[in-house]
Input
Amino acid sequence: MTRVTDPAGATNATTPGAPAAPETDDPGHDGHWLRSFARPELWAAAGYDASHHDFAWQHRELARLMSNECPLPPDDVVIEAALSAMREANFYPNSAWELRDALADFAGVEKHSVILGNGSTEILDVVTRTFITPGDEAVIPVPTYAFFETQVRLNGGVAVLVPTTADLGFDIPAIRAAVTPRTKLIFLCSPNNPIGRSWTEEEVVAVLETGIPTVIDQAYLECGYGRSFAPLISRFPNLIVTRTMSKAYGLAAVRVGYGLADPAVIDLLLRVRIPFSVSLVGARACLAAVREPGYLDRRRRYISDERDRLFAVLSTLPGVVPWPSETNFITIDVTATGRPSSDYVAEAKAEHLLLRRVAAHRLEGQYVRVTIGTIEENDRFLEVFSRSVPGAETPGADPAAR
Ligand SMILES: *Cc1c(COP(=O)(O)O)cnc(C)c1O
Output
C-alpha cells in the first residue's frame, strides 16, 4: 500500500494549511496571481491528456486500436433517432426518463436507482465530488483506470493505492486493511482496465462489507459475458455501479453513461450533477439502441469472438503474454521479448495502426494494449505485431485461422 503525494513533492493534499506547491517552470502553473485564488490542489494535478484522440481524428488513415472504442458504427435506427432529436434542438432537453427507465429494466434495478450522465466519466466525477473533501482518502486497487486517482487528487483527496498480488489477483486483505477513519470511497473496476479480468462476487462482497461507499466501474461489462453487480445494490446501499453506452454499445461520441445505486445515494448525486448534462440527441440515440433487438448482442458476440481469436494467436508468439480479457481490449506483456513497448507502438504506427503503451497505470514491465478493431484491422495488427516480436513467425491474414 502506498500513500501517494504528488510527484513534485507538494503535499498540501495531505497537510492542510501547508504552503502552496513549489514554483515550477511549467507555463501552466506559473501564474503568480492565480495562486492566491485557485484551489491549491490544482497545482499538483494533471488533467486528462486527450492528445492521442485528437491525433487519431487528424489522421483518419490510422486504425484506432488505442482507446477501446467499438469498431462498428451505429445502426441506422440509432442515427435516425439522433436526427429526429436535432429537429427539436431549439428546446432544452427533458430529463430522459424514458432512457432512465429502459436502462433500469436492462440493469434489473428500479428506476429511482439510476442516474444518467455525460458519459460514465461524469458519474465518476459526481461521485468523487459528493464524497471527497480535502484530506479524505480513497482506496484504489491498481493498476486501474487512472481517472479515479486524478479526480480524487483534484478534490484534495489522498489516493491510497493498493497493488495487486504478484499474479495480478485483487488483494482483498490489503484493500480492507487500507481503510482508515478518513476513507470515504473505494474504487473497483470490473472487468478491470487494464487487467482485463472481472472481480468475483465474493471479492466484491468482501470489499462492500467494509461499509465504505464503493464504486464499481463496469464500463466493459457488455463486451463479454461476465457478472453485473447491479443486483447487489438492494443488499449494499454503499454500492455505486457505473456503466456506459461508450464501449460495447459503440456510442462513445454521444457521451451517455449512467450510475446505479440505492435511491438515497442517487438523490444525493443528482444534487451534485449539473442540469441538462445529457443532450436530447444523446438520450434519443441511446434509447433507440437499447430498444433495438439484437443491437447489443451482435456487438457483444463480435467483440468476444474477435478478442478470443487475437488472444489465441498472441499466445503462440515467443515471449508474448496476453492477459485473458472480458473486455474489448487485450493488454499484452512484452517484457520477455526483450523489446520495450514503445518499439511495438512505433512499428505499428509506421504501418498505420495506433496502439497504446500501458505505462500510466503503475505497472512495472513492458505492456502494449490493443483494442479489438474490424476484422481487417485485427488481421493487420496480428501481422505487424508478430513482425515486431523477435523470433516469431508472421501469421499473416490466413482466413482459415479465424
Ligand atoms: C472507457 C472507460 C470509461 C468510459 O467512460 P465514458 O465516459 O462512459 O465514455 C469508464 N471507465 C473505464 C475504466 C473506461 O475504460
Summary: The pocket of pyridoxal-5'-phosphate is lined by residues 68, 119-121, 145, 189, 193, 217, 219, 244, 246, 252, 257 (CB under 6 Å).
